[in-house]
Amino acid sequence: MRSVNIAELKNRLSAYIAFARNGEEIVIRDRKLPVARLVPYVPMTANEEEEQLIAEGKLRPAKVEMTPEWIEEFLKMPRPGVPGNAGTQALLDEREEGW
């Protein structure tokens, strides 16, 4: 594991990014006190298209992995609803207005 002071990191950022890209972990120090880590990026389950959308800022990666247990808990959550027939009426009104 590499370790680098902030000033050195600023001066040679591209080199340290290359180290991380190659799988190394870098500890960043501020006056010899460790304050952060630069680690290789490992996508959870994103495919190439999702990676592109993430890079463009159009998609955020999931914060949790959707395990069967997580999905089960999610499905137990109460579903939002619109009281009465307000939702249906809004849809009918929108259809009458056209596009």
Q: What would the average pLDDT be, to the nearest integer?
A: 87
The CATH architecture designation of the largest domain is 3-Layer(aba) Sandwich
How many helical stretches?
A: 5
Number of strands: 3
- The CATH class designation of the largest domain is Alpha Beta
N→C terminal distance: 59 Å
- Give the overall shape, derived from the CA principal axes: elongated
State the secondary-structure class.
alpha+beta
CATH superfamily of the largest domain: YefM-like domain
Amount of beta strand: 15-25%
Total number of domains: 2
Largest sheet, order of strands side by side?
Answer: 1-2-3
Q: Biggest β-sheet: count, sense, barrel?
A: 3 strands, mixed
CATH topology of the largest domain: YefM-like fold
Note the run of SSEs as H and E.
EHHEEHHH
Task: List its salient traits.
99 residues; alpha+beta; YefM-like fold; 2 domains; three-stranded mixed sheet; 3 strands; elongated
Helix and strand topology:
Blueprint: E1 2-5, H1 6-11, H2 13-21, E2 26-30, E3 33-38, H3 48-55, H4 68-76, H5 86-97
Parallel strand pairs: 1-2
Antiparallel strand pairs: 2-3
Structure description:
- The protein has 99 residues and is an alpha+beta fold.
- It folds into two domains: 1-42, YefM-like fold (3-Layer(aba) Sandwich); 43-78, no CATH class.
- It is built from five helices and three strands.
- It has helices at residues 6-11, 13-21, 48-55, 68-76, 86-97, and strands spanning 2-5, 26-30, 33-38.
- The protein has a three-stranded mixed β-sheet with strand order 1-2-3.
- A hairpin with a 2-residue loop joins strand 2 and strand 3.
- The termini are far apart.
- The model has no long low-confidence stretch (mean pLDDT 87).
